[in-house]
Amino acid sequence: MTKVHRDLLQNLEQVRAVNLDSAYGFQLNVPQMTEKLVEYFATSLNTTLEPLSLPSYDRATAIQRAIFKEGVRSASYVFAGPGSPSWALDQWSPLGLVDDLHAVAQAGGVLCFASAAALTLGSHTAPVYEIYKVGVPQPYWLDGLDLMSRIGLSCAVIPHFDNREGANYDTRYCYLGEPRLRTLEEQLPDGVAVLGIDEHTALIIDLDADCLTVRGRGSAYWRVRGDVRTLAKGTAIPVGDLRHQDATNRVTLATPVVEESADELSILAERAAAGGSDALDAIAELTRRAVGGGEGRIDPSTLVEALLKVRDDARGRGQYEIADGVRAALVDAGVDVMDGPDGSTWALR
């Protein structure tokens, strides 16, 4: 799918590509998986892919969660792919990530979800590992992120639609097989379809043109209770042809985001220092701007000192979770913090 990635990236005025590791966060090789994806984007696409890490919602601090959300929302190209759809939902749903993904799309960015991550985008998500590998008495759906309803498409997304790895048994429909898929379809509410996508195939939804196209080796499919419409590759299909007439959640493109001024950086610092519920989001954005590369980067010296002051103030107020979170966020971002009898010092790693 390298050509598809290239074309999507070339359409962006500014590229800030990020990788979400949550879908494979349960695996023991998370760093190696991320390294492989970063290398692919660098060598095949000449694009820097910034890792955004949230392998576990429960093990992350409140500030780490806020930094992850801010990193998604400020990106123009969000990639997520292999792993487990049920694990991904366990991390993304309580985070409210669907709102951040929606914001990226509204601002004209690209959401590129594949494999396990693609399964999370619909109103219903099939827990394929649990059904295919673990074994359950009855196939069932999980509540998906339901990003698709934001553009008026009521559906569950099923990748790997034409899988043939089973050879002498049915592994189509992301290893569900025909009997299980029919059982699952019977559980869907009226008006909810299954959107299937073949392997090595991209279904591209253009919000500006309100149409979709299929590229790659195979096809896509709009399936309602076994009644299938094939979406052939190479043709533009109006989204309205698939949109349920009662759907009211169609996305409205927002006004492009205006670049922040230096004054707004001061406002962010004030929000961070206030220590209120809004402080985490402000700290997250300030931390990214201080230690991240590319557009929006600022001299880290003053900001790191300010964040350490925020930390000291939080400790003085007894808000130890915020204080510990600020330190952890700086350390994660490449700033070593050393506490001593005369206060805290720091150094960029």
Could you explain the architecture of this structure?
The protein is of the alpha/beta class. The protein folds into two domains: 2-241, Class I glutamine amidotransferase (GATase) domain (Rossmann fold, 3-Layer(aba) Sandwich), CATH 3.40.50; 262-348, no CATH class. A hairpin with a 2-residue loop joins β11 (220-224) and β12. The protein has 13 helices and 15 strands. 40% of the residues lie in helices and 19% in strands. α3 packs parallel to α5 (97-106), α3 packs across α13 and α11 runs antiparallel to α12 (300-316). Strands 2-1-3-4 form a four-stranded parallel β-sheet, with helices on both faces. It has a four-stranded mixed β-sheet with strand order 7-8-11-12. The relative contact order is 0.10. The chain has helices at residues 2-10, 30-45, 62-73, 85-92, 97-106, 115-119, 128-134, 172-175, 177-187, 262-274, 279-291, 300-316, 320-332; strands at 17-20, 49-52, 77-80, 110-113, 124-125, 142-143, 155-158, 193-197, 201-206, 211-216, 220-224, 227-231, 236-238, 335-340, 343-348. The protein is elongated and about 70 Å long.
How is this structure best summarized?
The chain has 349 residues and is α/β, with parallel strands linked by helices.
